[in-house]
């Protein structure tokens, strides 16, 4: 037990102070992100929309994410990650507060589109910040710590949100989301200093770089397609899965939040030691990506059985281990491939892959459920993982 504890502590050593502060801020921000996991239920139960309407509204969530990811990458390359992060989180807070006052279909589409366009401009910037504030040998663990903080926050958020929804309703969650975004960025501004400006020579070199180099990299396109497929399956976690838990197994919001907490607890306990262990092994990044796609595929195949509630736990565990390998190592692949001065463009393409999945995943999955039922959707979703396995194998041998 003492050795396990020592290994756990060792996995956190050597990371910079700025990375710890970034993780703290992410924890606070994500703990306040209470509406997102219950958005599909909020739209159906509180506002009375059907699955088809919900799928279009959630598609706007994805479109906004694409716009924000692209914009965030461009702005990061021009103005630097620091300014983009500060402006994005502050305005996102105001947008979340305003969303609670919108209940019309087109108003929700536009409001969520705008909110996500602002919110997801933050994503390329924070990943570029990880590269700026960490040593190359610590990059994967720095990403792991940031993800641990995000997931711990996402564990606290849905758990509290489920309790708040049952007792107070949905509207107060929008206030919490907005206030925590603003609080997080105020802390970031005072705790983390902007890196020193690049020398004039460096800035001149950056201007000469081919700004479209990320879009001419064939292997990088294959990697982006893998990320898209991964996202198509993974984002069922915030669209189809909560509805499945509620309609087929009659779980209320609080119990759904508790099931999602399983995902967070596994990540908090195992992800950093696992990444620390794997980083010491000379294993190609692409192999971990392949394994994550395989676990993702299996996690949805097991859901085809819909009469034993324990299968929900098994699926969640498989999904979590897939996530623990998939996100850090797809991220590492990008950061290691990105040219200095173009990190924002590379990270934008990476995050856009997931953002596009946000558009199509809820639309396709909820349409399949509406027309053919949940079991067909789970088989279809497992197919994304299978395609990811094939492409990962190609990428590994490219």
From TrEMBL:
Main location: membrane
Localization annotation: Cell membrane
Membrane topology reported for the UniProt record: Multi-pass membrane protein
Domain of life: Bacteria
Matching PROSITE patterns: MFS
Domain Major facilitator superfamily (MFS) profile: residue ranges: 18-398
UniProt cross-references to Pfam families, sorted A to Z: MFS_1
Alphabetic keyword roster: Cell membrane, Membrane, Transmembrane, Transmembrane helix, Transport
Transmembrane segments annotated in the record for this chain: 20-42, 54-73, 80-99, 105-133, 145-166, 172-192, 218-244, 256-278, 285-302, 308-327, 348-370, 376-395
PANTHER family reported in the protein's UniProt record: MULTIDRUG RESISTANCE PROTEIN MDTH, RESISTANCE PROTEIN MDTM, PUTATIVE-RELATED-RELATED
Protein name, as recorded: MFS transporter
């Amino acid at each position: 037990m003492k050795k396990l504890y020592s290994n756990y502590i060792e996995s956190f050593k050597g990371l910079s102070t700025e990375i710890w502060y970034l993780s703290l801020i992410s924890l606070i921000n994500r703990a306040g992100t209470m509406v997102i996991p219950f958005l599909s239920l909020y739209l159906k139960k509180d506002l009375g929309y059907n699955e088809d309407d919900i799928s279009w509204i959630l598609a706007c969530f994805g479109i906004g994410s694409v716009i924000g990811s692209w914009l965030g990458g461009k702005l990061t390359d021009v103005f630097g990650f620091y300014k983009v992060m500060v402006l994005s989180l502050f305005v996102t807070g105001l947008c979340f507060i305003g969303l609670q006052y919108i209940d019309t279909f087109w108003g929700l589409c536009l409001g969520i589109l705008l909110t996500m366009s602002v919110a997801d401009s933050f994503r390329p910037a924070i990943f570029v910040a990880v590269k700026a504030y960490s040593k190359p040998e610590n990059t994967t663990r720095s990403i792991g710590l940031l993800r641990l903080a995000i997931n711990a926050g996402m564990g606290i958020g849905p758990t509290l949100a489920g309790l708040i929804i049952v007792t107070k309703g949905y509207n107060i969650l929008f206030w919490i989301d907005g206030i925590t975004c603003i609080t997080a960025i105020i802390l970031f501004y005072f705790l983390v200093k902007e890196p020193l400006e690049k020398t004039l020579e460096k800035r001149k070199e950056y201007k000469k770089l081919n700004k479209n180099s990320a879009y001419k990299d064939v292997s990088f396109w294959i990697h982006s397609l893998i990320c898209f497929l991964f996202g198509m399956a993974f984002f069922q976690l915030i669209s189809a899965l909560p509805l499945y838990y509620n309609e087929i197994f009659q779980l209320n919001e609080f119990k759904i939040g508790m099931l999602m907490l399983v995902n967070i607890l596994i990540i908090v306990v195992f992800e950093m030691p696992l990444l620390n262990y794997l980083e010491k092994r000379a294993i190609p990044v692409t192999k971990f990506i392949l394994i994550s796609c395989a676990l993702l595929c299996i996690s949805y195949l097991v859901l085809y059985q819909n009469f034993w509630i324990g299968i929900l736990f098994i699926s969640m565990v498989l999904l979590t281990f897939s996530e623990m390998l998939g996100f850090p190592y797809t991220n590492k692949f990008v950061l290691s491939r990105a040219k200095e001065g173009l990190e924002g463009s590379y990270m934008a393409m990476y995050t856009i892959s997931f953002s596009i999945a946000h558009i199509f995943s809820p639309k396709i999955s909820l349409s399949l459920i509406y027309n053919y039922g949940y079991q067909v959707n789970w088989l279809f979703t497992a197919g994304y993982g299978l395609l990811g396995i094939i492409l990962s194998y190609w990428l590994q041998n490219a």
